[in-house]
Amino acid sequence: MAANLIRRGVLGLLAGACLAACAAGPAAPVPDAAAMETRIFLVRHAEKEKGDDPGLTPEGKARAAALSARLGGEGITEIWSTKTRRTEATAAPLASALGLTVQAYEAGALQALAESLRQRPGAVVVVGHSNTTGELASALGAEPGPAIDEAAEFDRLYEISIDRDGLVRSRIERYGAAPPNPTGASE
Asked: What pLDDT digit, counting tens, does each position of 107-117 carry?
């Protein structure tokens, strides 16, 4: 009989604890600091062929694949590109791997793009040109570094982080194979 009373007491305490937990309602989710941060990756298009609105060379296609490999695990939620074959082809492998659609932006509206990107939590990639990538980095509040070498520099990758308080951190890295010797190509 004493064991029966003890068992009832323990069951009563457990039932009371369960009711108290349910009455308190669900715990408020703790904000994920990474989800509140904006991360923007900026790149110039990969190596291009000659001519009007050229596509990518074999080296450029390899670099676009290297970009996809480099950024594939970064949690990218959006990819932006100008409406040129070389930028779209640079973005295509990553977009395909992630199941994303490449969104178009106007190279002449970089300040508006920067303002829009600042408001997007998550990770975004923007593919541009030698004369727009550094300018966009500056518009986002990042250090643009030296001007991109139009003839030979295709491997610069900016990683820009903007926290919820607006603090901008940035770094420049290289990705893919070392660029080929200058060919006289521009932008």
From this structure: 999 999 999 99
